[in-house]
Amino acid sequence: MVKKEEIQLRDPFVFVDNETNKYYLFGSTDPNVWGEGIGFDVYISEDLECWDGPFPVFRPSDTFYSKENFWAPEVHEYNGNYYMFATFLRKDNGKRGTGVLYSNSLMGPFLPHSEGPVTPEDWYCLDGTLHVDGAGEPWIVFCHEWVQIADGELCAQRLSTDLKHTIGEPVILFKASEAPWTTAFKHRRFPNRNNYVTDGPYLFHSQSGELMMLWASFIDHVYAQGIARSTTGQVLGPWVQEDEPLFRNDGGHGMVFSTFEGQRMLTLHTPNKTPLERPIFIRLEELNGKIIVRRDKDGN
């Protein structure tokens, strides 16, 4: 059993299992996520404080299409089974993309389901998430990386009902620079351009039923988390950005879930520096139609 402060993990994703009253914490669990990949692990808790694990849920075979940059696993229940959406660096062309894995258990093992990443083959993509619309149609929402296009994009693309491949062309939902809270940065690889990051999208509904998107970027080189909302309630938007970030203290790539007691929570990793990153859990509330970090009676 370990405390959450002892877990080195990026890109936390919590699956709330109502059958067992347990929380399953997935994430980028390799000690060095920037290099050769080991796989993904899961931690299990009843209170979000003390966790059993790690338990291995994915280990690649020798023929797997990637061997490095194993990032951001999300586990979704869909049609009675469990599907993991995760980022991998492809062996064949050196570009990142989101692939789909499958298991009939939250404990795995998760095995390849799609034939390689389902995001566009010639794009640098990451952090794909599953969204099922009101008609029951599955979509993948993902990031088109700033490393390829400078101004990172959030995109959506239809998925086949078996989640094995995409349908049609990707649709750009918005660019990172469209949010009033993001700032540009320079990078040594691209010294003559301004870069804006899109990272870690996660879609959810507010208590009033609005379709919201949590996503991450940077403010003056500091990792931050913001929210956009769909004005139509549909995944294709249009999407309107909140003026201020939800979290700006060197943390991001989060998701939203509700505890067994009904408290809406934000989880993200902070600080954004390996090997110091840890998952944290933050209470949320809605005030005048906006989602904000909940303060206690002392204002903390």
From TrEMBL:
<keyword id="KW-0378">Hydrolase</keyword>
<dbReference type="InterPro" id="IPR050727">
    <property type="entry name" value="GH43_arabinanases"/>
</dbReference>
<comment type="pathway">
    <text>Glycan metabolism; L-arabinan degradation.</text>
</comment>
<comment type="similarity">
    <text>Belongs to the glycosyl hydrolase 43 family.</text>
</comment>
<keyword id="KW-0808">Transferase</keyword>
<feature type="site" description="Important for catalytic activity, responsible for pKa modulation of the active site Glu and correct orientation of both the proton donor and substrate">
    <location>
        <position position="127"/>
    </location>
</feature>
<keyword id="KW-0326">Glycosidase</keyword>
<dbReference type="Pfam" id="PF04616">
    <property type="entry name" value="Glyco_hydro_43"/>
</dbReference>
<protein>
    <submittedName>
        <fullName>Glycosyltransferase</fullName>
    </submittedName>
</protein>
<dbReference type="InterPro" id="IPR006710">
    <property type="entry name" value="Glyco_hydro_43"/>
</dbReference>
<dbReference type="GO" id="GO:0004553">
    <property type="term" value="F:hydrolase activity, hydrolyzing O-glycosyl compounds"/>
</dbReference>
<dbReference type="InterPro" id="IPR023296">
    <property type="entry name" value="Glyco_hydro_beta-prop_sf"/>
</dbReference>
<dbReference type="GO" id="GO:0005975">
    <property type="term" value="P:carbohydrate metabolic process"/>
</dbReference>
<dbReference type="GO" id="GO:0016740">
    <property type="term" value="F:transferase activity"/>
</dbReference>
